[in-house]
Amino acid sequence: MLQFVCDYCENLKRPDEIWITGVAAENVGTQAARREVVIDPTWRRERALLPFAVHFCSIECKDSYLAELFDKPAALLEVQGAVTEPDGRRVVRAKRKPLGEAIQSRTQTRKKTRGR
User: Fold this and answer.
1) What contacts 20, CB < 8 A, 6 or more positions away?
2) Pairing of strands 76-84, 20-28
3) What global pTM score does this model have?
4) CA 100 vs CA 6, 30, 44, 51, 97: distances in Å
5) 3-class state of residue 81 by DSSP
6) 69: closest CA among 54, 58, 48, 57?
7) φ and ψ at 73, to 5 degrees?
């Protein structure tokens, strides 16, 4: 028996309930990180079965999940080393590093002048 659980509050979906489904993914590279969530307009069982599917019992749970997901910055990867294997594959060894440590502030304040 297959059961769907809310990804935020962990409620179980009953067959007669209308839920929200979507697909979430995170791609963390050596220079950038990207998170995305695609929310479907209606419950779609075929999408609910996908490996990266997310399930929500209410709009409030969906909104809370998204707020937490996008409120936290993703980690960056700090490359430890790279080796090219004899078969031509390149193996990169990396360690996750919190984003806060990796970014330094580079802001400048410019004074606006009229007429330019």
Assistant:
1) 39, 40, 43, 55, 56, 57, 58, 59, 62
2) unpaired
3) 0.57
4) 30, 15, 38, 30, 9
5) strand
6) 54
7) -75, 150
Token code pair at residue 69: 């997901």
What type of residue sits at position 4? F
Answer yes or no: are the C-beta atoms of 26 and 34 closer than 8 Å.
Answer: yes
**Structure-block tokens of residue 42:** 């209606």
**Residues ≥6 apart with Cβ < 8 Å to 100:** 73
Phi, psi of 45 (to 5 degrees): -55, -40
3-class secondary structure, 40: coil
Beta bridge partners of 82: 92
pLDDT in tens, 42-81: 888 898 999 889 999 999 999 998 888 777 665 666 667 7
Kindly state the DSSP code that residue 52 receives in the 8-state scheme.
Answer: T
Query: Six-digit token pair at 104?
Result: 């330094």
